[in-house]
Amino acid sequence: MRKIATFLLLITLSLKGMAQSGTNIFGKDPIIHLENFQKQRLYFGYYLGFNSFDFKIDYKNVGPDIQTQKTTGFNVGVVADVKLQEYINLRFEPGLYYAKRNLSFPGFTNQIDIQREVNSTYIHFPLLLKFSSMRTGNIRPFLVGGVSTTLNLSGNSKTKDDNYEQKFRVKPWTTNYELGFGIDIFSEYFIFSPSVRGVFGLKDELIRDNDPNSPWTSNIESLKSRAILINFTFH
Asked: Which pTM was predicted?
């Protein structure tokens, strides 16, 4: 919720800055910017943003939960947008995402056994459909959804060491579905598009310890990533 509030504040400040610079967005007769830009069949852009990754953990047996401490990471990537029809676009948004989670396992007294730091460097490949509303002045809200696949470059998947050697391991490839919303804001020279999107992992990512009775992984039925992405796209 704090990140969404920050996102809304940034939008408010951006709109205020445009208003102060003479860009009429909500006025009665706004000056229409880049009127023909989105009539193009294909156009490109880039995005910057930040993320908050979590794990959804299902257990085999009822017991104390593993606690996940989330931190804020960052995103950077490019956008290729293909117009399918007036209100629907197909978007490919490959990017590099850095995230960090800290896991606290119950049942231990030694801190070295309790804590596992999960640093993740993702190459993210989302293929999305963007559903835009009618343009009102210089704004155009939209919904976005689709599927993605993600390569984790730092999941320890190739190491034979496991939690007994303080190595928490996850699979290198995951698949997800994504849903979100945003708004296109047309300025005189470019389109600024802030958006919020949820990412929901579809497959179990955990590589279990070599010992089938491991106190860290034996009770985990599945472990899937969840994330909130806040991106600021420029076309």
From this structure: 0.82
